[in-house]
Design brief:
Elements: E1 3-6, H1 14-17, E2 19-20, E3 24-28, H2 33-43, E4 46-50, H3 58-61, E5 63-64, E6 68-72, H4 77-87, E7 90-94, H5 101-104, E8 105-107, E9 111-114, H6 120-130, E10 133-136, E11 149-151, E12 155-158, H7 164-174, E13 177-180, E14 194-196, E15 201-204, H8 209-219
Parallel strand pairs: 1-15, 3-4, 6-7, 9-10, 12-13
Antiparallel strand pairs: 2-3, 5-6, 8-9, 11-12, 14-15
Length: 221
């Protein structure tokens, strides 16, 4: 597994616009073909072009692991049907007022750390669609758990202010090693600047050397 630098729309916030698992890379409609091909080489997945809720925010609005896909209630039926047809994965819709699902759910293939804002019914849907154990808990004082933690099946990156005891709990739930880091030269919301599956880590173009060292410790060792 390698770590690559990448940008999108001339900025480093790659995690807001793009979503990935081991098989698919979901990109916004109209994404440049040469950029898409490069990302396909890095993440080793099939490129699919879509929108979510008629926006380009595929990373912020949806959650995907290798078991399923969660869409917000604002997603359009044609978007749901396209993803169902092309991925042949389990797809669920979370009927929550918190529609930026990528900001409130961090999941790999074993577990999910979920915002306390979500309901018990939401948590049940997450368990069923993503096939994971769910824990509701704030991270470093943030209810936006998906914004401050990113994970694959071997490692995770988390907000620098996270409590050590919480990290041990999260590590057990998700079955991974966790390291504290920022992204893109000091941004604490790590989701905004990381794409990760079980093949590769891709980070925003402004990510510093020290941040890459922490990501290497989390995901590559």
């Amino acid at each position: 597994m390698d770590i690559f630098k990448y940008d999108v729309y001339r900025g480093p916030n790659i995690g807001i616009y793009i979503n990935t698992n081991d098989d698919f890379i979901l990109l916004p409609m109209g994404f440049a073909q040469n950029k898409a091909e490069k990302l396909g080489e890095y993440l080793k997945g099939k490129i699919l072009y879509s929108s979510i809720a008629n926006t380009r925010l595929l990373g912020a609005l949806m959650v995907m692991n290798n078991n399923g896909i969660l869409l917000p209630k604002t997603a359009y039926m044609d978007e749901y049907e396209f993803l169902k047809k092309e991925t042949k994965m389990e797809i669920g819709v979370l009927d929550s007022k918190y529609t930026a699902l990528g900001n409130v759910i961090c999941a790999n293939d074993k577990g999910a750390i979920v915002s306390p804002w979500l309901s018990k019914e939401d948590c049940h849907t997450i368990e069923q669609v993503l096939g994971v154990e769910v824990m509701q808990k704030r991270i470093a004082g943030f209810n936006q758990t998906g914004a401050v933690m990113v994970a694959n099946n071997s490692g995770a990156a988390i907000h620098l202010d996270t409590d050590e005891e919480d990290m041990k709990i999260f590590s057990d739930i998700m079955g991974v090693k966790i390291e504290k880091t920022s992204i893109n030269n000091g941004i604490p919301y790590v989701m905004s600047g990381i794409l990760v599956n079980n093949h590769t880590v891709v980070v925003g173009s402004m990510t510093s050397g020290s941040e890459i060292m922490m990501l290497t410790s989390a995901f590559l060792n």
